[in-house]
Amino acid sequence: MAFSNLSILGVGLLGGSIGLGLRASANPCKIVGYGYRRETLEQAQAFGAIDRWTLDLREAVADADLVILCTPVGLFETMLKQLAPVLKPGTLVTDVGSTKRTVVRLARDLLPEANPFVGSHPMAGSEKRGVEYARADLFHNALCILTPTAGSPRSAATGLEIFWESLGMRIVRLSPEEHDAAVSDISHLPHLLAAALVSMQSRSAMPLAGKGFIDTTRIASGDARLWRDILLDNRDNVLTSLTRLQNEIATLKKLITPTKGEALTAWLASAAQRRDDLAKAKLREIADE
Amino acid sequence: MAFSNLSILGVGLLGGSIGLGLRASANPCKIVGYGYRRETLEQAQAFGAIDRWTLDLREAVADADLVILCTPVGLFETMLKQLAPVLKPGTLVTDVGSTKRTVVRLARDLLPEANPFVGSHPMAGSEKRGVEYARADLFHNALCILTPTAGSPRSAATGLEIFWESLGMRIVRLSPEEHDAAVSDISHLPHLLAAALVSMQSRSAMPLAGKGFIDTTRIASGDARLWRDILLDNRDNVLTSLTRLQNEIATLKKLITPTKGEALTAWLASAAQRRDDLAKAKLREIADE
Predict the structure, then answer these.
(1) 8 Å CB contact of A185 and B199
(2) Which of A186, B4, B152, B226 is most buried, most CB within 10 Å of its CB?
(3) B202 in contact with A, Cβ within 8 Å
(4) Chain B nearest C-alpha distance from A18 (Å)
(5) Does A206 reach chain B within 8 Å, measured CB to CB?
(6) pLDDT at residue A151 above 90?
(7) How many domains does the structure of chain B reveal?
(8) Which residue range forms the structural domain that includes residue A185?
């Protein structure tokens, strides 16, 4: 099941990279871009990320067999409401958002029965926004989490799996609930910590920052409004992650004392080992491609 | 005031990189390496990081006009005690440790009056250890913090400043107290946070880690015993930094609620802006070289 007519709603970093990636893999599908800003769409077309574009949503999805929502998470409800009356029966809808419970619920409530929805979270990106940062290889070797539910036709999830694999991604399937809990720990919390680490620096310490600090806080440069939407949408999980981190810090503070030297070493060594194992596993995954 | 006879005590990543950097800048000084392990010293000589080596401390410093302590922070007291009786009058002593109050106090208490000590903290390194990771350009464009005190002869600090500049470093002078407080925030805290972020991950979330997580936690891979020594030595400041971070997290948790959306956006945007300004300032510093 290959898609021959693709509609990308919102052609920024992710939407643009999908288009460029499909072209780089010589996928012959037709790609229509939709958005609010003519300049962005013209730029996306000039880059070769889309074949044509329109500011009219009905026109954008008229022939589509796959529609990919690439707008910020905060716009999903509006987009799905506008999509519902203009989709032809059978068109599969997915998204690239960083949270999954809300979009899956919205799609179930708002889209016609004849339009299956399966959530996608391609875990690739950048702290940069905009189609000018789009890259054909953005998704290479990265993970894509799919969140099919009991209501999703099996063929829809399989078709999407093949689609993302064609862009170089590895697939993991989780429930929307499992997804939101896991990314809260592994993605949303690191962002917040990077931002907190920057926020608490004094003006005198900041100029002393070295390469380690610059690397550690890179993800704090992400777009504030995008992140606000993600954090509010995943609020319960994010607050739980922050509480677990607070507990970890409280434990750590008790270890930073001369009589606990061995326990402190063990805590540091265990973290170093887990991080090294992870980095090695990631390298192996890339080598296995 | 150029140094013509250098003694490097502990030829690992930092000591080895000093030697390689001096050679790369065509500095004609003689470099002796000292350490406990013959294999390491042979390796350092084979790499061209030192001209010759010895396992005898007296021999290592007999002709030195500059001695650089490059052992772990936890060994400084032992090393300074052993150094005191074998230094010739006038030999300047410095170190490359990550904390400064203790080593400055130890040097004042243990070294002869005729041997000035000025602390150095070249803020360059790696999560790797060992001379096999040494690089001639490790110090290029990085910051070196010098901590001269009222008792340090002016010529000693000036000589060291020129020495580190010859390896491509930019110099900042701070008091030992200012140094330890600032690096607690900008260097020790990021390390602990990276480790805490790894430690609190569940086994199910870990495989979902993306590039952002790998970057954010890179520094957690540092050597556990080295870090234990640094953290215990700088305990008061590190505990203060952790408390300030706990307060920042507590503030943040109150912002992750729908009615505080604007304040959350402002908090995220301010962190992103400060981090971007820092990254740009670092790029400018490199461009200015």
Answers:
(1) no
(2) A186
(3) yes
(4) 18
(5) yes
(6) no
(7) 2
(8) 180-288
